[in-house]
Each structure stands twice: as structure tokens, then as C-alpha cells.
Amino acid sequence: MYSAHNEQPPIEVQPPPSPRKYWTRRGIAEWLREQLSMPEPMIVGIDHAFSFPIQYFHRHGLPLDWPKFLEDFKTHWPTHEDHTYVDFIRDELCARG
Q: Buried b vs exposed e over 39-73: b needs ≥16 C-beta within 10 Å?
């Protein structure tokens, strides 16, 4: 995550101290909520792909339906759950991505 103010160059914002190496989605949401509660106007940009390649849907027999995709994705990548991180899933400690 980066933050920039006026004419100053952007600076990297480190995640709060914890055993985790990276930001969590929840941590980012909480940080944004705090920042957006301040009186100074703010612009938020998110670098996010809006879809998976069509081949992903075909390979896994998924309908071209965003809610169905998210349901299937959460089954294989349950990073919405507490203390479930991408590395845990990659190492097959709690799910199979």
C-alpha cells in the first residue's frame, strides 16, 4: 500500500505490527475506514483485475456468473476467514487453492 500527499512522492505504508508479513484485506479495510473518517478529502485507487480469464471458467465448468464464481473461489481460497492466509492455502495447510 502506498500513500501520497499533495506534491510529495508516494511512500509505502507498512502493515500494523503482527506475525504476518503482508497486509490483510481486513487490515486494509480498517486502515481505509480510519483514513476516510478524517476531514481531508481522499482518493482511493485499487489495482484489481475485474475478472479471471474466460479459460478459468471453462476449465472448471463454472457459469459466467460473478456470484457463482465468488462462491466457488471462496471454497478453494477461503482467505475471508480469520487467520487464513494465501501462503497457508498454497502450502495446503487449510485448503486446496
A: eeeeeeeeeeeeeeeeeebeeeeeeeeeeebeebb
DSSP three-state, residue 13: coil
**Is the CB of residue 68 less than 8 Å from the CB of residue 48?**
no
Mean pLDDT of 50-76: 86
| Pairing assessment for the beta strands 2-3 and 11-12 based on DSSP bridges | antiparallel
Q: Contact at 8 Å (CB) between 86 and 74?
A: no
Q: Quick check: 50 pLDDT over 80?
A: no
Tell me how far apart the alpha carbons of residues 2 and 74 are, in angstroms, rounded to a whole number: 27
- Give the predicted TM-score (pTM) of the model: 0.53
Helices (H), 37-80: 54-59, 66-76
Measuring CA to CA, which residue among 8, 2, 7 is closest to residue 46?
2
Phi, psi values for residue 66, rounded to 5°: -60, -50
